[in-house]
What we know:
Elements: H1 2-9, H2 13-19, H3 26-33, H4 41-51, E1 67-77, E2 82-83, E3 89-95, H5 97-102, E4 110-116, E5 129-133, E6 144-150, E7 153-162, E8 165-169, E9 183-193
Parallel strand pairs: 1-4
Antiparallel strand pairs: 1-3, 2-7, 4-5, 5-9, 6-7, 6-9, 7-8
Amino acid sequence: MLVAAAAARGDSLAALSAMLGRNAAYLQQFVSRGTPKRLAEDDRRRLADYFGIDEVALGGVAAPRAWRVPRLDVSASAGPGSLVDDDLVLGAEAIDPSLAERLGLREGQAGIVRVRGDSMEPGLMDGDLILVDLARRTASARGEIFVIRIDGAVMVKRVARLGTRLVATSDNPAAPPVGRGRVELIGRVVWLMRAPQ
């Protein structure tokens, strides 16, 4: 690609090497001998800018593609719960694949849900968007925040395993107690997205 781009503009490899501040044989050796095996990052970037091409065409590494995470038409109530028939997809949000990797997410196993109510304050506020790992459905004794369903009502609560049963509680001490129905874990909350105030 480098030889074709240079020829199209009428540039010699020696002139391009000089533009990079390298010896005249630098790019010729790269093309004909493979020395260096890969252009230096700054050299590659300058050449890509000069030719108006993507760095990948000059041996750069393609940026990882952003993950598309569905935004679900469900409000996870931080209060008494909201009844839903279906988790409908409203659209999708892009998240950085390195963030997804740090959070241990698997593609296709996450969703974004809006928080409604104040029972999980101060950690989660009304209107926050939360990233939910739908593959994590196991609570520990210390308690983590999950999107759950109790008797058809979807809510976000802190859930701890006490022996064989799951106990859901609110973080806000002023919130009413959580209902006593069977707690179904939908997924663990792994990230918070909040609009700036």
